[in-house]
Amino acid sequence: MSGAGEACLQLGELTVEFAGDEAIIHGPSTGGEEREVECEPTALVAWTRFDDLGRYRPLRGARTMRHDWRTRCPKERLEETLDAVYPLALHHITDWKNGKLRLVGLDEVLSRQSGRYELSSKLAQEARDAAAEVLCARCVKVPVWRGERPERDDIPCPEPCSVLVSLCREAAIWEEGLPEPVEPEASVQFADFETAGNEIREAYLRARLAATSDKGGS
Amino acid sequence: MSKGILLVAHGSHLHANSSLPVYEHARRLRERGLYDEVRTGFWKEEPSLSRALEGCDADDVTVVPVFISSGYFTEKVIPREMGLNGRVTQIDGKTVRYANPIGAHPALARVILQRAEEAGATGEEALAVLGHGTPRNPQSERNVFQQAEYVAATGRFPEVTTVFIDQEPNMRDVFSLVKEETVVMVPLFVADGWHVGETIPEDMALDGVETRRGGRKLRYAGAVGTHPSMVDVIEELVEEAAKW
Lengths: 218, 244
What we know:
The complex is a heterodimer of chains A (218) and B (244). Chain A has helices at 41-48, 78-85, 89-97, 106-111, 125-136, 162-174, 199-217, and strands spanning 8-11, 14-19, 22-26, 35-36, 69-74, 142-143, 156-157. With 218 residues, chain A is an alpha/beta fold. Chain A folds into 2 domains: 8-87, 2-Layer Sandwich (Gyrase A, domain 2), CATH 3.30.1360; 99-217, Alpha-Beta Plaits, CATH 3.30.70. Chain A has a 5-stranded mixed sheet with strand order 1-2-3-5-4, with helices on one face. Chain A has a two-stranded parallel sheet with strand order 6-7. In chain A, α1 (41-48) packs parallel to α2. Chain B has a 5-stranded mixed sheet with strand order 2-1-3-5-4, covered by helices on one side. At the A-B interface, α1, α3 and α6 of A face α1 and α2 of B.
């Protein structure tokens, strides 16, 4: 990170430092030179929606943010700027600290699905847990909806996201006869769970096959 | 009393372009400065529909569905996820107005005409409004036919027809549906995403903006939903909802 800031705060993969009336927001660093990015919210959304390989990041908290970039904004616009990267994160941190964050669990979210996603509600409890463990481990947010507790300025996640619902839908299909996992392929998109080689699909299948073989051996 | 707009849309886990127009509309609305806040919410992206209102500080928020069709999403999913129980709902001290979807508003016909003109239409061609449609949901077609009627009522084109990707009358039959030598086809879609950018050009074997077939021409316009003047349609929807 460059610059001689007054103080720092961390939000997810972002580091914020303050210099006079300005806030400087840094993306994760590899130690390389930082690219300057426009702080206008729509421009920042466009920048942070893709990872280093240009893959789309539908899960904004995914630990796949582009490296080596920074943006500058007036201090009074910091909240709006951070919200463009992590929508509602600051609201949820405040509500959690004040004991006002509304929590909704996975069972409730899956039970209200209809249409294409109604199938997700068929997923058994241990498979739901496996899906959440695999996906949430790849996100900077702390899933307080499943009882985890954030530390300091961790971002609490109050409700399972649509990506997890989508994973549960696919998992309900896989559970009818677990396919053999294959090697993950970087070219497969983050949430393309229907395609073999998707990293999350393969991690889920490996976890479920391991759990099944443990049961069989015990 | 502070006023806000919350644009809600489908979004996508796989196609980043699908929600780009929504962010652009939000940016343009902010630039106009007529509202205290303009935010977004998505079914498949963040912030989710179920949490999006938490980010709204305004006392009076109008939720505008950036959807072409009225039906499953606008009548079932959005109200369920956002806790809306009618045109106006009081939620946590806020007045939340639920506007009609953009696809139902008569002003959208103006944008269809703009897209046709940008594709080279002079008013001597046939105009085909292209919708998605689906045999699984008869409501899906309603706004597409309605918009074609609004366009026809302007009298700007000698023929106006309606075609679909996924139901009859199919887009591949468009030349057989009209007599004019040249057809201008305007996709009534929210984004220049997968359908407008890929499946339609592939399925119809389009050669770009202009395709020639057996002495006739097809001019393919940009998606209606990405046009900058969509913000005028959104503002009209918000103004109407403000009277409820």
